[in-house]
Amino acid sequence: MDYDVLILGGGIIGCAVAYELSKYNINIALIEKGYDVANDISFANTAVVYDGSESSSSKMALLEKRGIDIIRKHCKKVNVRYNKIGSLRLFLDESGELLNKVYSDSMERGIDGVRIIDSDELYNVEPSLNLKANKAIYSENTSIISPYNLAVSYAEIAVDNGVNFRLEEEVIDIKTISKGFRVTTNKNKFTCKLVINTIPNESFNDMCGNVTSEMKNKKVKCIIVKKSIGDNLKKIIIEDIDEENSMIKVPISENENLIGIKISDNFSAKLELPERILKNIKKESIVNIFTEVYSENDMLIDDSNLEAGYIKVVGNHYAKISVAPAIAQDIEKKVKVSMNITKKKDYIDKKRETYIFREMTKDQINRIISLDKRYGNIICNCNNISEGEIIDSIRRPLGARTVEGVKRRTGIGLGNCNGSSCNIKIIKILAREMDKSVLDIVDDSMDSQILVGRIKEFNEI
Ligand SMILES: Cc1cc2nc3c(=O)[nH]c(=O)nc-3n(C[C@H](O)[C@H](O)[C@H](O)COP(=O)(O)OP(=O)(O)OC[C@H]3O[C@@H](n4cnc5c(N)ncnc54)[C@H](O)[C@@H]3O)c2cc1C
């Protein structure tokens, strides 16, 4: 056999599974069709880590409750910012029925740190709140993280512990063979004892079909807006308009909020909705508008073919990041029993060090610059990101190979100029580090070439 275990898909779940299984004495590869891992993570670089109090599904709530605990510990371990900002949930329905149900569900699920607050406390917790409400549900647990940084950290540790990440390989077929599987990609054929399929809606032949998750997909309109003067809202704010329609406001950076609006097509007064949460919202402060699919299908592990060596993650959910580490640990337990594996003695449960200038003191920064002058060459003036940080993001295990990969790993290009002054500098550094022509550097995928050719024959671009 080429591998003991093949993990299909390098999304947040695939990376978390690779991390958990890299502790064991087994030969593992992960196959991902993209140039980078976790490439499908939503455009906004911040995710909410839910605690299970908001979920209408008890199964998902319990996964979220376990997930938030694991994520907090993992973020600390791998130095990914975990911001416990809390959330306020308000209800347009004045009967209080929905509010009481959400609260009693949280209590039944044993979620600490969730309570009903009255209007006095509500405006103490969030003095600039524009919405009128007599009561709200306050969860002090709800947090925000950079999901991409967490997924990349999982992947980096897995690589350092011997997992083979096979990027740019698309799985096209899986067949059973004697005591295992043959997985065919667009480039290779691999044999393995166990397949863990984390790819949602794959088009190739799928072994499992016994467990299905009810499809509940909706469109959600996302608006990224610059924070306006007087907007001091610190919490995540969720407003339930009714059982079908809701809005969420998430502070995604120092300067920006994301507003997600989930409303049915026939809901009137859509345009005024964001103003309910953010009073001073103006057309000019809108940075981006996009539509995403919002899924509410329970996520399950289909292990009905585990004896044959096949596990599949089923379902898609708006809290996939929150539940990914709990799903990965459940898969780890199943693999441990099924394959009777032992832990490595030389396992390194640590991410290689990174220098993030915007989180460092002047003295620390100067010490790094004295060791390597490239850390003194600032490439991104909006976010104070140096050439040294960009080079490190490329040279790390499973380093960035695309402009988007550099941006997501370092935070460059996410400032006020939206990358207009640093894009070309990133392209040049990537080309130099990868020994490629600048014309071969892509944004995020194979067909996303940025520079299409020279218009004049200068010696350099
Ligand atoms: C608008 C929006 C907001 C969200 N906000 C939150 C949030 O606040 N909190 C939260 O917890 N979650 C949130 N989610 C959920 C979460 O961001 C995503 O669902 C999840 O991260 C999907 O990304 P992934 O990289 O894990 O991709 P997945 O789709 O789960 O990963 C599958 C991977 O498999 C690869 N692949 C596909 N086909 C093949 C093939 N044939 N061969 C090899 N590889 C293949 C893909 O390239 C991909 O990398 C949100 C989702 C959306 C849409």
Automatic annotation (TrEMBL):
Residues 378-431 form the BFD-like [2Fe-2S]-binding domain. InterPro entries: BFD-like_2Fe2S-bd_dom, BFD-like_2Fe2S-bd_dom_sf, FAD-dep_OxRdtase, FAD/NAD-bd_sf, G3P_Oxidase/Oxidoreductase. It holds the Pfam family DAO. Residues 4-198 form the FAD dependent oxidoreductase domain. This is FAD/NAD(P)-binding oxidoreductase. It comes from Clostridium diolis.
